[in-house]
Amino acid sequence: MQKNYKAKYVIQNSETILENFFIEITDNIITNLTNEPVNDSEVIDLGNVAIMPGFVNAHTHVGLVSVKGLGHSTASALYDVMWGIEPHLNEDDVIKLSKLGILDCLSSGTTSINDHYFFSEGVATAAIEMGIRGFIGHTVMTEYGPWLGDEQISMAESFIKNFIHEPLIHPTLAPHATDTTNPKILMYLKDIAESNNLPIHIHLSQTKIEYDYTKKNFGLSPIKHAKKIGFLDKNVIAAHCNVVEDGDIDILVQSGAYPIFCPSTHALGGKLMDTNKIINLDGVWGIGTDCSGGNDDYDMIEESRIALYINNSKNLDTKMSPKQIFDISTNQNFQKLNLNSDMSPMEVGSYADFISIDLSNEKMQPLHDLVNNVVLSASAREVNDVIIDGKEIIRDKEFLNADKYKIINEANEVLDRLLIKSNFRERIKDGEFS
Ligand SMILES: [Zn+2]
Q1: How far apart are CA 133 and CA 145, in angstroms?
Q2: DSSP secondary-structure letter at 110?
Q3: What is the Å distance from ligand 1's center to 44 Cα?
Q4: How far is the CA of 218 from the centre of ligand 1 (A)?
Q5: CB within 8 A of 270, min separation 6: which ones?
Q6: List of E strands, 212-272
Q7: What is the pLDDT averaged over residues 346-366?
Q8: Using only C-alpha atoms, what is the Rg of the chain?
């Protein structure tokens, strides 16, 4: 079915803004950008809005909404907080928790997530039901973590088989990190990724514990270890890369892997990825929110702005403009997740994934520079419409097919059980995480 969405502006990318334009979509694909729609085709006027490509969140764990607000005490967010709750999860819990995380993604204008979690079939089920595009991988660990063993590798493989033909789901391989996944399994998963032409999504050099572990066991930093075993290449999405030694960032950039800056998580944890150095070496980096253990929300508008602040705060000649940040959070993240595709999100032939920003709100006025206003002033409140794979998910700030309060209640019911089982209810009451 063919239809045209009309808007005051269509932001194709930071440099191309079309005034009083129509986006023609046929089923789930953009088939034309025009100032005059074909006669008789349906026109939906979105009003005083700017249509733009949806945000693409390059590193999430939407199901980890479970630990919101608990990752900021002296307890380690990963080793104490997340791994304290996660052994008690089941697939149904992950579906219900992920739906709450996805609500936050959608209402703040994200149309694609790159998610890494246990019970990946549950995450994918939630993504399909909510209508968000999901690059999703099943977390595989061989040491320490809450879910280990051959069964997890089988689940990673069966997830690919079961979901690869789902239009909204793009399976990835997702080893957890270089300390928690042994080299043999890292390379086993890499082989599967190569033979199926899929990306690999990993946490790389994210904690001092990981760094000390690979130094002790392999005599190398996590990034040098990953390089030595032949793991790093341009199809690797590497979250964090923030605990590094001399030479690590150079190796990372040379490998073509895509390092993901999670600015809120990094700033709150006191360890930043060195975005300026990556730029100096002619490399590129992406932006993701990470999870509630580190950041507490999934808002890519906020995250993009913080990425700009932190990168520019060092007053180096590697400062970026709001427009460059806009292109990372939309176009570049999308292309990297699609194995370095050169297709941009708002081009003819691409998925009909886009959002609209309400221009009548005070945060968007006056309107001297549309893209700068989106990056520097807009909030989730200005996200008016969300269309993914040709389907309307949010219209006029209302979810069309999701009962927001039912999703919130069901997630809280799951948490009531999880917090008791994990003894977290008592620990929260005792102030252990405050
Ligand atoms: Zn993470």
Answers
A1: 27
A2: E
A3: 39
A4: 23
A5: none
A6: 236-240, 258-261
A7: 97
A8: 21
297-313: per-residue pLDDT in tens? 999 999 999 999 999 99
Q: How far apart are CA 185 and CA 302, in angstroms?
A: 36
CATH 3.20.20.140 boundaries in the chain: 55-337
Question: What is the percentage of the chain residues whose pLDDT exceeds 70?
Answer: 100
* Distance in Å, CA 289 to ligand 1 centroid: 8
The CATH topology of domain 2-53+345-399 is Urease, subunit C; domain 1 (2.30.40)
In this structure, whether the domain defined by 55-337 belongs to CATH 3.20.20.140 is answered with yes
| Strand 258-261 to 236-240 pairing | parallel
* Residue count (the chain): 434
- Rounded to the nearest angstrom, the distance between the alpha carbon of 152 and the centre of ligand 1 is 18
d(CA 286, CA 143): 28
- Ligand 1 geometric centre to CA of 305 (Å): 19
Instruction: Look at residue 145 in the predicted model and tell me its pLDDT.
Output: 82
Q: How far apart are CA 343 and CA 324, in angstroms?
A: 18
Where along the chain do the CATH 2.30.40.10 domains lie? 2-53+345-399
pLDDT band at 155 (very low <50, low <70, confident <90, very high): very high
The one-letter amino acid code at 158 reads: S
d(CA 223, CA 259): 11
What confidence tier does 62 reach under pLDDT thresholds 50, 70, 90?
very high
| CA 325 to centroid of ligand 1, rounded, Å | 21
Q: Which residues pair with 286 in a beta bridge?
A: 260
